[in-house]
Structure to design on (973 residues):
């Protein structure tokens, strides 16, 4: 009996150790994010040195103060926020769709948002009406999310049903967007193309406030359900047999994921690849326990977007390489590196 | 006692199960035997609450399982599927730990960790505890799934073809385990198998299922006869007795229009 | 015949027949020769002019040109200046967006967009000449049109430096030299006037030119850059190589331009009643975070201009506005509105209407 207890103790201890590593990773990611934010704050086209930047942070008025507080800080914070939202949304969609290739845009949310933006750019005033564009993009994205739910209610909220509905939606909204582009002037088309590349230049404090609410609101619900997401990994039936209401969990997942995705991209345009790659990178390091995976993937996503934006602003300064392009440039090589290093068969 | 009363299930309008009655007592192992497609898996899923029956009821200690909350049902029934495809990596310990979900609020407690560890120990999975599920062999994975079901502290186990993809050694190991649990922990077990010999060796009761209906039920000795085998499996066989239970020696298949 | 063995002639055929055969050969050759000469002669009488297109190529165009397909609005505008609009048999599909400006021309048959024309529709109209931009649509246009024997001429007609020469080319082709010269003289007169005044200037104020998309500057190679240079401004994006670089708001703040000019496409300026769409965009720029530190914003020197006078045959008017905004003291007697009226009434044959620029902001009054 004492021998068995010792082994039980050992097993528990080893499990707790692993959990400890996951918590450590969370702390490290947070620290890394802080470093990335500071690096982002210290770079810019106006040629301020890091020392000047730090001084300007605390000075009361003046042009440099404005540059830091009204331009750089909102930009970097928005980048972190968007990366956070997309990283978590990607994790949620991968869990509820049981598909390692899922991203926040698999269910058509991105295409719908793009359609909303195009409508305003072409017919309702133009791209300079930031709030109209964002509002329309957000509304369209949520409509697409609810469409998924409606179909899921009618048929069955299985992962396959959702993915198929999502793909159909994606094609529908993409074709409508292309049709509108076809009808537009050259200038309008140019505007639409760049919306799909993503841009952080329009991020101000008001926009950050709204995005924060949209992205952080679903977070408590998701963290509470973290353990249930783990059960989905074994299959719907296995999860049901363990007491999880799988259909309900999936629906809440779609709502939360769509809300976070829509909230992220309605002000910035489509920023791809982060939502796909951040969960994978995180999973390769700390495994699939969603209680830790969800926040960690968010942090990793935030770091990726902040770093991508900083690089995009410095590589070819003062020109900006669009954030959507930069996230692919950063994400892909790192992803390949991890892919070649991994020993597991699957994700 | 786990009771299934007059259970019926339809798929796309066609009946898959008709009028199924089963009793499973604690401390007893009941086997569902029958050819592929007879409806064994469907029946187990209906009982586990994964599929919704078209008619009839499932009672656990006289309580209607249909009225129970899913978590409550998961505390009484441990369902072990034939196999599980894991899309994302999990260790053995984590997998067994998920079995504690019906008892958890929203995170595993110290007690949950200890319970899982104890079950892993009892099933001799200690060395594998921190390894990933996909690095295990078929037999080892099956044992882990069984451990997960046991972590639920169920009164009844529902096992779907636990031995179909295992070699001889692991087949016996798993069934001996289940049999031991049934005896020592006073659990009831409902096992779906198509191997009659194993069924005969380990079960207290066998139900032969043919095309969604119970063809006959009883002790192994009563049920396993050449006539029954011919009727249900369409196989001509010889049944011998030895070591206290019957065993089947199949001779040849029977064409559809041949009579016994 | 004895002693004279001729292997080709079968015995029994008389030599006289052979001579007749030869005579027939010769007369047949002569007739063909005469026919060819006559043909060449007549060809020499139907004219064909060699002109230089916008790509610098010497192109032969056969005359007369009586049926023209105009694939873009710049071409159609120049044709109207040359009083050659009745020669137009096909127009670009986007003409419906500017129906107020074009009048009856809107009713002409449509042939697709300026970069993706409908080849069949063009062929069905049997034009003598199709006029298109130099790069868009691609060489496929010439290939397809050659199948129908239709000529294609590449003229940009939107670059200020080359506009004069290209209008003269068209004038020569369409036998409208008088009208062409009239316009070119008017155009050159005003360009020269602005250039002379700019030449004497010591400092060029820094200007931020923004293209239609927010935060996309007009860099070298773009029309806006060219206009700014001609108007005497120093484009802060002049060193950024690409035509439409995407820049950060911070960079504009640090460059601190004195004038900000933005291009806008608000439908068609001709049908606008007031400057509201331009003013809205102007105000959006004035309110951009941290931009109040920019001289242009604090003095209210922010202007928005319609695409109608931003590059194209009317770029001279856009340049005139820019010159006034960038060097207000230099061009006190330059009236871009009057210039525009002259252009629309004398060359386009339509009345002067519409709004094309934003109002002066309250912060800065002339």
């Amino acid at each position: 009996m004492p021998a068995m207890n010792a082994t039980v103790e050992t097993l528990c201890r080893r499990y707790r150790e692993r959990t400890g590593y996951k918590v450590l990773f969370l702390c490290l990611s947070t620290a890394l994010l802080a470093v990335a934010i500071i690096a982002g704050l210290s770079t810019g086209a106006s040629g301020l040195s890091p020392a000047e930047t730090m001084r300007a942070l605390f000075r009361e008025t003046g042009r440099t103060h404005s540059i830091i507080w009204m331009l750089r800080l909102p930009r970097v914070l928005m980048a972190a926020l968007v990366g956070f939202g997309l990283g978590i949304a990607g994790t949620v969609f991968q869990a509820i769709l049981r598909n390692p290739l899922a991203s926040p845009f698999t269910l058509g949310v991105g295409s719908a948002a793009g359609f909303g933006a195009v409508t305003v750019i072409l017919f309702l005033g133009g791209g300079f009406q930031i709030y109209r564009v964002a509002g329309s993009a957000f509304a369209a994205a949520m409509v697409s999310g609810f469409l998924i739910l409606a179909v899921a209610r009618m048929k069955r909220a299985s992962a396959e049903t959702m993915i198929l509905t999502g793909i159909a939606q994606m094609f529908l909204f993409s074709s409508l967007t292309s049709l509108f582009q076809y009808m537009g002037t050259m200038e309008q088309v140019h505007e639409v193309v760049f919306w799909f590349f993503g841009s952080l230049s329009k991020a101000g404090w008001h926009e950050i406030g709204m995005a924060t609410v949209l992205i952080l609101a679903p977070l408590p619900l998701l963290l509470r359900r973290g353990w249930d997401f783990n059960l989905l990994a074994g299959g719907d039936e296995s999860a049901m047999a363990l007491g999880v209401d799988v259909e309900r969990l999936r629906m809440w997942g779609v709502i939360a994921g769509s809300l976070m995705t829509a909230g992220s991209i309605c002000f910035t345009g489509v920023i791809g690849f982060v939502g796909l790659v951040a969960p994978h990178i995180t999973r390769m390091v700390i495994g699939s326990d969603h209680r830790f995976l969800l926040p960690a993937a968010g942090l990793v996503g935030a770091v990726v977007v902040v770093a991508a934006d900083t690089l995009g602003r410095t590589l070819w300064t003062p020109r900006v390489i669009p954030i959507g392009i930069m996230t692919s440039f950063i994400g892909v090589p790192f992803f390949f590196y991890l892919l070649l290093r991994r020993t597991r068969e699957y994700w | 006692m786990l009771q299934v009363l007059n259970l019926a299930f339809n798929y796309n309008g066609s009946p898959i199960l008709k009028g199924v009655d089963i009793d499973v007592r604690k401390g007893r192992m009941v086997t569902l035997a029958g050819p592929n497609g007879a409806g064994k898996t469907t029946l187990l899923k209906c009982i586990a609450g994964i599929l919704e029956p078209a008619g009839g009821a499932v009672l656990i200690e006289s309580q209607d399982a249909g009225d129970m909350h899913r978590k409550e049902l998961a505390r009484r029934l441990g369902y072990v599927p034939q196999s599980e495809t894991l899309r994302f990596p999990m260790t053995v310990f984590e997998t067994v730990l998920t079995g504690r979900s019906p008892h958890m609020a929203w995170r595993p407690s110290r007690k949950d960790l200890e319970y899982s560890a104890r079950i892993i120990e009892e099933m001799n999975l200690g060395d594998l505890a921190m390894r990933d599920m996909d690095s295990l062999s078929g037999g080892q994975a099956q044992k882990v799934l069984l451990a997960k079901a046991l972590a639920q502290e169920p009164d009844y186990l529902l096992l779907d073809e636990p031995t179909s993809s295992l070699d001889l050694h692991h087949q016996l190991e798993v069934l001996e385990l289940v049999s031991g649990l049934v005896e020592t922990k006073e659990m009831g077990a409902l096992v779906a198998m198509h191997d009659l010999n194993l069924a005969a060796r380990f079960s207290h009761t066998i139900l032969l299922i043919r095309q969604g209906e119970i063809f006959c039920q009883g002790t192994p000795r009563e049920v396993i006869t050449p006539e029954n085998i011919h009727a249900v499996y369409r196989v001509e066989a010889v049944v011998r007795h030895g070591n206290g239970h019957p065993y089947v020696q199949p001779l040849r298949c029977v064409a559809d229009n041949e009579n016994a | 015949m004895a002693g004279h063995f001729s292997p080709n002639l079968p015995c029994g055929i008389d030599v006289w027949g052979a001579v007749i055969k030869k005579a027939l050969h010769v007369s047949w050759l002569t007739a063909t020769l005469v026919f060819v000469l006559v043909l060449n002669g007549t060809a020499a009488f139907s004219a064909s002019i060699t002109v230089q297109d916008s790509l610098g190529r010497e192109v032969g165009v056969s005359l007369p040109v009586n049926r023209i397909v105009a694939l873009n609005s710049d071409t159609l505008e120049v044709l109207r200046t040359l009083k050659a609009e009745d020669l137009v048999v096909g127009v670009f599909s986007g003409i419906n967006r500017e129906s107020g400006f074009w009048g009856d021309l809107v009713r002409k048959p449509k042939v697709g967009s300026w970069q993706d024309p409908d080849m069949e529709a063009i062929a069905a109209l049997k034009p003598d000449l199709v006029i298109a931009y130099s790069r868009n649509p691609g060489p496929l246009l010439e290939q397809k049109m050659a199948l129908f024997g239709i000529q294609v001429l590449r003229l940009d007609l939107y670059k200020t430096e080359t506009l004069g020469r290209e209008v003269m080319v068209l004038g020569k082709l369409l036998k409208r030299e008088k009208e062409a010269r009239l316009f070119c003289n008017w155009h050159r007169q005003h360009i020269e006037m602005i250039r002379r005044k700019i030449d004497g200037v010591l400092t060029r104020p820094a200007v931020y030119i923004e293209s239609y998309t927010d935060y996309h500057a007009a860099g070298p190679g773009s029309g806006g850059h060219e206009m700014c240079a001609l108007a005497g401004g120093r484009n802060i994006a002049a060193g950024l190589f690409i035509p439409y670089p995407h820049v950060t708001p911070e960079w504009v703040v640090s460059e601190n331009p004195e004038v900000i000019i933005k291009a806008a496409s608000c439908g068609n300026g001709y049908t606008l009643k007031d400057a509201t769409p331009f003013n809205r965009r102007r105000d959006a720029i004035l309110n951009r975070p941290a931009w109040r530190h920019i001289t242009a914003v604090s003095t209210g020197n922010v202007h928005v201009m319609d695409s109608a006078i931003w590059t194209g045959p009317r770029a001279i008017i856009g340049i005139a506005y820019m010159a006034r905004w960038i060097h207000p003291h230099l061009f006190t007697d330059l009236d871009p509105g009057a210039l525009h009226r002259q252009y629309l009434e004398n060359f386009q044959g339509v009345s002067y209407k519409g709004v094309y620029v934003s109002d002066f902001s309250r912060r800065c009054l002339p």
